[in-house]
Amino acid sequence: MIHVFAQAPQGIQTAPHDARILAAGHQVALREVDLSQVHGKESLMLAFLRGLSLSGNFGHNWDALYDVLTDSDACPARFALVLCDYGHFRTRHRHLAAPLEGVLIDAQREAAGQGRSLWLLAEEPDSDTAHW
């Protein structure tokens, strides 16, 4: 079976159970964003601030998130973003899920245009959904 890091990033994909080990073995930097405590846009932006270890001057908006994810100085050339509790987040916050997915997919495309890889991995402890 071919695992996620052996292929080019393809949208938001299901995180393999051993994502951290696979990432380390393929020299992919990995960060986790916990979406389980998101209650609105502000707490969503705070989740990214924490997960990406951003500074306090992070703009807390869609443009700022895109800028961080496409900044070659801020993100390594091979970078995976694990979205923890993603399926539940999408169900609870449909109004936030669509713009978030747009920003993430746009950032993934821009990274590819820069010769970089940005994997977007949805992690659900009890789900086997293949793609969103």
List keywords for this structure.
Barnase, Chain D; four-stranded parallel beta sheet; globular; Barstar-like_sf; Barstar, RNAse (Barnase) inhibitor; alpha/beta; 5 helices; Barstar; 41% helix; 132 residues
- Structural class computed from helices and strand pairing: alpha/beta
Q: Radius of gyration over alpha carbons? A: 14 Å
Question: In percent, how helical is the residue content?
Answer: 40-55%
The CATH topology is Barnase, Chain D
Task: Quickly count the helices.
Answer: 5
**CATH homologous superfamily (4th level) name:** Barstar-like
Strand content: 15-25%
Question: What summary fits the major beta sheet?
Answer: 4 strands, parallel
Q: Please, how many domains?
A: 1
Notes on the protein architecture:
The chain has one domain: Barstar-like (Barnase, Chain D, 2-Layer Sandwich), CATH 3.30.370.10. The protein contains 5 helices and 4 strands, in the order βαβααβααβ. The protein has helices at 19-25, 41-51, 62-70, 86-92, 94-113, and strands at 12-14, 29-34, 78-84, 117-123. It starts with 11 loop residues before the first strand and ends in a 9-residue tail after the last strand. Mean pLDDT is 91; it is low at 127-132.
